Amino acid sequence: MSEAHLDTAAHMIAHGGNLHEAAQRYGIPWDAWIDLSTGINPHGFPVPPVPAGAWRRLPEDDDGFAACAARYYGAPDAQHVLPVAGSQAAIRALPALLPVLLPAQASAARVAIAPLTYGEYAPAFAQAGHVVVPLDIASGTLPEDAMHAVVVNPDNPTASLVGRETLLHWHAQLAARGGTLIVDEAFADAFDDPQANSLADTTGRSGLVVLRSPGKFFGLAGARCGFALAAPPLLATLRARLGAWTVSGPARHAVTHAFADTERQRAMRTRLDGESARLGALLDSHGLAPRTTPLFAWVVHARAARLQDALASRAVWTRRFESPASLRFGLPASEDEWRRFKTALGQAMQELE
């Protein structure tokens, strides 16, 4: 990633889940595919019947939804939680709310972002006037001239995980410069101890933002609901930027129910641990050396484009990345999908030989 303003107006940012596009490209009916292109839990939490009032009434900020999220995530209280229309809404809005110029200088502020991570962050910061510089997660150090930093933890797609103490150290460094650390914990819920590396409980500190999403672990991506956790002054500014009614009544109902279902949460984490191990073992049996989280596996492979194509011709859709050449695999949704994926992967690997 070059130290420059990124021009993103000319192209759309690629994401997984684009199954209709794959169906058209390969001439295979949409409902015949195994979609492994996202890290969304294929065993989504059930949504109870939605009360009629959730459709008829406008959502109200004092309905207890923020407090429910604060309890689930371990934030200090409801004043430190802002429901948003998916964490994507906060990703697009936050860069414009953070300082762009370095103190007492005319140069633009630098924001450190890993070269391969969730693809929406770098364009959003560049469009707001920041300069994006590479963040080397493995080194454990921030660029000396960075004013802000973004860490997706665990990372999507590389599965790297930064420890809590390192994150707190980075936050202290950035806060001393008048900057901000943004930690995206969209995939944290699937771990056995979701709070082990989370900074949700520290979001009373200035210069810290934690983003959470029920879309991945709970399988509620279609609800378009997320949460920004931060000190109240920043959340007040973000709320003013986003406007009213950011999360619909039916979405609030579904997410509240999922947060309360602690028994299903425990059982689901156990299930995902087993399925993640199964996926890792299958990929490893073909020499693909995966790095895994409970919801997806990432594989670096010199012929990733060819492997994606070979799998797609067999109605298995994956997410491909360019640098390094790699694929991300989500979890199959059923035993039939596991069987079909195992067969397709074996055939595709033979085709690459």
Automatic annotation (TrEMBL):
GO function term, MF aspect, one: threonine-phosphate decarboxylase activity
Residue ranges of every copy of the Aminotransferase class I/classII large domain listed in the record: 65-334
Gene of this entry: hisC_1
Function according to Swiss-Prot or TrEMBL: Decarboxylates L-threonine-O-3-phosphate to yield (R)-1-amino-2-propanol O-2-phosphate, the precursor for the linkage between the nucleotide loop and the corrin ring in cobalamin.
Cited Gene3D superfamilies: Aspartate Aminotransferase, domain 1 (3.90.1150.10), Type I PLP-dependent aspartate aminotransferase-like (Major domain) (3.40.640.10)
The protein's required cofactors: pyridoxal 5'-phosphate
EC numbers on record: 4.1.1.81
InterPro entries: Aminotransferase_I/II_large (IPR004839), CobD (IPR005860), PyrdxlP-dep_Trfase (IPR015424), PyrdxlP-dep_Trfase_major (IPR015421), PyrdxlP-dep_Trfase_small (IPR015422)
Pathway: Cofactor biosynthesis; adenosylcobalamin biosynthesis
Name of the protein: threonine-phosphate decarboxylase
Native source species: Paraburkholderia caffeinitolerans
Keywords tagged on the record: Aminotransferase, Cobalamin biosynthesis, Lyase, Pyridoxal phosphate, Transferase
